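Review form for a predicted model. The reviewer records the input and the model, then writes brief findings.
Reviewer: anonymous (R2)
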Amino acid sequence: SCGIEPAITASTGIAATHIGGMTIHSWSGIGIKTYLDKYDLDKIATREYISKRVNRTRILIIDEVSMLSPNTLDMVDMVCREIKQNGEPFGGMQIVLVGDFFQLPPIVKKYDADEKAKQSSLIPHERYVGNFAYDSGAWERAKPVICYLSEQYRHDDVNFLSILSGIRKNNVQKEHLHHL
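Model under review:
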C-alpha cells in the first residue's frame, strides 16, 4: 500500500455492502439519473460533500462493472472531470474496474425518439449500440489495461468447475450433462 485510500464503490447496493463501500451512483452524486444536462452537472459539482469526496479521490474502484450501463460510466466520468476541472478521463484519477462480463448485464432503458430529443447534447445517446460499460466513451478514452484472472479459488471440485465453465461460456458438453 502507498498510503492512498481508494474510493470503494460498486454498481449495486448489495455489491457495495459486501465490499464496505457505496454505490457509484451515490458516490458520484448522479443518483438515479439516466443522463445529465449542464444544469444537472453544475448542481452535482457544487454540492460540497460530493465535491470534497471526488476531489480527495486519487483511486476510484468500481466493482461489478458488468452491471453498469455505458451512460452511467460516462456520467461518472463527466462528474469527475467537472469537479476536478481536469479534462483527462475521470478527472485524472486512477480507476480500477472489477467485474465479469459473463455475469449479469446492466439494465438499460430504451428511450423513444421524443425522450431522445429532450436529452442533453453532453452525452450523445444515439451513438450507443451496446449495453455494457465497455461501450461507453469514458471506457474508450480511459484505455484501461485489461487483466484476466486465471485461477479460481471458490471451488476445488474439478467436475463442478467444468460444468460451471461450460454454462458460463454457453458450451455445455455431454459429459457436463452426464455429471448433472
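Findings: Residues 112-117 have pLDDT under 50 and may be disordered.
Further findings: Strands lie at 7-10, 22-23, 59-63, 94-97.
Recommendation: see findings above.
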